[in-house]
Amino acid sequence: MSDSIDGLIEKVFHAWERRLVARTKDRVVRPFDWGLDWIESNGHAPGTSPDIILRDWVSQALADSSRFFETPDTSDYVFRPNADGGAISFPSALKTPQPENNTVYGTYFRSVRHDRGHRAVVVLPQWNAGPEGHVGLCRLLNRFGVSALRLSLPYHDARKSPELSRADYIVSSNIARTVQVCRQAVMDARRAVAWLAKQGYERIGIVGTSLGSCLSLLTAAHEPRIRVQALNHISPYFADVVWRGLSTAHVRTGLDGSIRLDELRRMWLPISPQSYLDRLGDTKTLLVYAKYDLTFPVDLSKNLVDEFRRRGLRHELSILPCGHYSTGVAPFKYLDGFVLARFLDRSL
After folding, report:
1. Tens digits of residue pLDDT in 172-199
2. How many Cβ atoms from other residues are within 10 Å of residue 110's Cβ?
3. Which of 3, 112, 179, 330 is the most buried (most CB within 10 A)?
4. Which residues are within 8 A (CB) of 299 and not within 5 positions of it... i.e. 6 or more apart?
5. Which pTM value belongs to this model?
């Protein structure tokens, strides 16, 4: 394909992406906050600069990430079966000030096919996904003989506190809160994996999209029962996506003037995939990015692919011929779903 034709296609997709993003009218610019009320100050003297306090907390989290993402077992699972599988709820291992957010909700889609053994995946949707987000993927996985447990992320769906119209607290200009709520999501996913293991599943994977992709890698890096991960829209760094991405421009506005990108990148290393690549070991990975993505800039996606190659990590790569938001539109959503489901079927 000539450069001129490819450039024209890129312009078409970029214009489409901007129109799709503009459909959402309830984005709110929230003020910058270091979020020190979300962490323990670790004995710093009164008057210590907030950035120093937070930098020390981040260093401790990175130095012992196993402890940072440690998730105590629970027996407090509530399961309500139905014809497709059922609904599950359980307490989150990390408590937040909003009580609605402290119960985790999931939908279990049971596969009745056992020709390839007992296989299941945890499914983590994208930021601000509605209750039906990724249900189609779960049903497709069932057709491949893989059961699926779709989780609602923190501050999503029934976990959303009354003052929110969107799931702002998981990605925002509040620095420590963003880290802690993403940490909570990883701990929730680990408890979901534990529940699947209690049901007798021996081969367990995880699949996530966009924000869910980042959280999936963090989970796989700290949960030894996960054998396979499918990462749909990727970046090595959390901060760079928020700083440069189309759908987080309102978050960037809240950050501007209060923190630089290099400092933000450092503060958000505990929730950045780059920090944990060496923990993946033999985990089988599918990396997926979209050629015309403006939300997860393509150079960031390519950087993560390069890191997998440089470190010799087991992976496959799929490049979608669309953008970020257009991935959720036919025919691209069917292509994406098939790529994810086929990989999980072959690899689990």
Report:
1. 999 999 999 999 999 999 999 999 999 9
2. 16
3. 179
4. none
5. 0.96
